[in-house]
Amino acid sequence: MKVCIHIGAPKTGSSAIQYFLRNNRSKLEKYGYFYPEHRTDKNDVSGGHAELGSAIIAGDLEKAADLVSGWLQEAQSRKLTLLISSEALYGRISEVQELFQGHNVQIFAYFRNPVEALVSNHNQSIKRHFGRLPLADFLEQRATPNNRGVNGEVFFDWVKVFGSQAVRVRPYNPSAFKKDRIEYDFLDMLGVRGFSARSFRLEKRLINTSYTPGALELKRLLNFVLDPDAPKDSVEVDWALQGFSDKASAKRSAAEKAPVEVNPEVLALLVEGFKPALERMRSEVLENCTEDFWRPVTVVPAGTGPKRSELAEVFQAFSHLQQTIPATVQQLEQKLTELLESKSAGELPFAVLKLANVMGVPFREPSQRKAKPSVVAGAVKSVLSGNAKDADYLRELAKVLAEQGLLEEAVKVIEKARNLRPNGQGIIKLHESYLERLKVQASQSSEG
Fold it and tell me: What are the start and end residues of each TPR repeat (predicted)?
């Protein structure tokens, strides 16, 4: 029998599609599709048929097969095409092939501009995966044309297994959507068009909108005290901040919604680096590729977007948390207080102090210490003195290397200085000190 599977990709409007399909199950049946029921959260966000994806990810193919078997039987009894949706299936090609072997499988997906996808992945890492990195640091780690999560390579793997006719991928871009809505665009892929499509119930508000910049920054700060091993608090915070963001987004016009700003040089390198991937996707896989798709729309060079006070919105988002989940906020304040008491302010990341400021938790500011004389300046002074010998040059070079964290190199240099001046007490002390520091460093590395 025929099976249609929507696999995402992640952060390409899947929640909106799933909410739409769930609300129109009876209408879908009229046009030949059986869409199994699934749950949504308090903000109407869901993972679609996440139970299937979770079973596959956990390696429980027996449970996954039972789910699939039940859905197939139900669809067959009604003489309908089975339609399922889950981003968790995005990279699970072999499992999908095994579970639906013998059936006529059609794969539906959307592909987002890689630069926008990277920024969206950063948001998701903070929202759901306890990420703490600022965007610039995240891009430095992930921004590579070889990133299979965003460059489209996954779709070519689907094509290899199921064939080019069975894999349909469209650009995730409002200018490419039918009637500017992804829900209508998805119906178009299902073959439901014109007056038939307009008979479906369409939610006017957006589902699972991106966090506002202030909400995203607040969640990043809170991730310094949220515990990944006790995710309940994080789920509560996410639910509250999603509600805050949805309301804020609904009040803003499209022109008022600030794009994400990225360092101009970094953005230019990203755009150029992903050009080959975009060209290959356009020429071999994508349907209905518009000109807008070639440039990121929601990401702009820093300094070109509208100015807005992110910090003011951080305080607004925190006020919303206090009103919505006061008990959780109190627990997080207690955890933050304990963290502040465990270390001096100078030993804590700046983000922790920023969070304390937002939450109104007292803390002592780092003391303003006088800058120590530069090791390099001291080395230069010593080397330029009229009495400096080869051992002195090597000693000062070792000091500079040690200050830069290059302990192994410092040890090698100071050993050479000690060979030249075996009774030099200053050189001996430095040599022993570097050896001890190197030993501690090795011990810490093995424990980590």
Answer: 391-424
Domains and CATH numbers, the chain: 1-112+147-205+275-290 (3.40.50), 375-447 (1.25.40)
In this structure, the strands spanning 2-6 and 81-85 are parallel
Res 82 pLDDT > 90:
yes
What single DSSP character describes residue 286? Answer: B
- Sheet with 2-6, edge to edge strand ranges: 33-34, 81-85, 2-6, 104-111, 167-171
Place of tokens 């699939």: 68
Amino acid of residue 281:
M
Q: If you count them, how many residues does the chain have?
A: 448
Of 376 and 268, the one with more pLDDT: 268
Alpha-carbon radius of gyration of the chain: 28
Distance CA 13, CA 6 (A): 11
pTM above 0.90, yes or no: no
Residue 104's SS3 state is strand
For residue 373, what pLDDT is reported?
A: 56
Cα four-point dihedral sign 286, 291, 297, 299: positive
Phi and psi at residue 312, to the nearest 5°: -60, -40
Pairing of strands 33-34, 81-85: parallel
In tens, the pLDDT along 169-195 reads 999 988 889 888 999 999 999 999 999
Helix (H) or strand (E) run with residue 171 in it = strand 167-171
User: For residue 252, how many other CB atoms are within 10 A of its CB?
Assistant: 11
Q: How far apart are CA 208 and CA 189, in angstroms?
A: 22
∠ at Cα 186 (184, 190), nearest 5°? Answer: 110
- The confidence band for 103, taking pLDDT boundaries of 50, 70 and 90, is very high
Give the tokens for residue 429. 């002390």
